[in-house]
Amino acid sequence: MSEEIASKWNSRYSYSGKPMPAPARVLSRGVRWLPLGEDGRAREMEGPCKALDLACGRAANGHWLAQRGFRVSAWDISETVVEEILSRRPKMIYDVAVRDVVKVPPEPSTFHVIVVSKFLDRSLCPAISAALKPGGVLFYQTFTHGLSNPDYLLAANELLSLFDGLKVLEYHEPLPDDEGKAEARLIARRPEH
Ligand SMILES: C[S@@+](CC[C@H](N)C(=O)[O-])C[C@H]1O[C@@H](n2cnc3c(N)ncnc32)[C@H](O)[C@@H]1O
Domain of 15? Predict the structure, then answer.
């Protein structure tokens, strides 16, 4: 199954020269919840501030975080897109890897920030919560409308219930746009204790 998924995404990414997409709105509009210092750069937290762009695709979110001083890991199942990220210069992202995050989820208490956009595997949500360090923040954005496969669509308010134990900081669930697409956005924090 994971080979099929990788192959589907490899063919979608087998083009070149497209400009880097914009970061997900959940990040660009949620800057206030990032652990940034007064200089607008990632705060040192007993070492570098670690961020994960999970199922990163072209890693627009990871790139945006790296530009702000985060030590970013960006993982995706598609070898093609990972090769494309690795070929970029300058190398902005600290750790780029081919990784099936469903089979090999992130380790517990590892990241200060996790961002997930346009990806949904409900079985992974407990591991995503656990992969945040205490006080760490999750930025999650994905579709409620506009995809043909209903497995990848969130139900109304569903995103609010997928991350037990996290404190919700912001939630938005806009109505579909003119093309019938909409994405819910959640920002939530793992409590310190
Ligand atoms: C719609 S794209 C979104 C990419 C990126 N997050 C963005 O917002 O542009 C979904 C991504 O999930 C990746 N993906 C799908 N299943 C995966 C898995 N089990 N492990 C890691 N990545 C996976 C695909 O290769 C693809 O890059």
Answer: 2-189
Give residue ranges with CB within 6 A of ligand 1.
2, 5, 9, 21, 24, 55-57, 60, 76-78, 81, 100-102, 117-119
Q: What is the mean pLDDT of each run of 10 residues along the chain (193 residues)?
A: 90 80 97 96 92 98 98 98 94 97 98 98 98 98 96 97 96 97 98 93
Task: Give 112 Cα–ligand 1 centroid separation in angstroms.
Answer: 21
Cα–Cα distances in angstroms (integers) from residue 177 to residues 12, 36, 133, 143, in the given order = 24, 32, 35, 12
| Cα 153–chain centre separation | 16
CATH number of the domain where residue 163 is located: 3.40.50.150
- Pair type for strands 132-145 and 71-76: unpaired
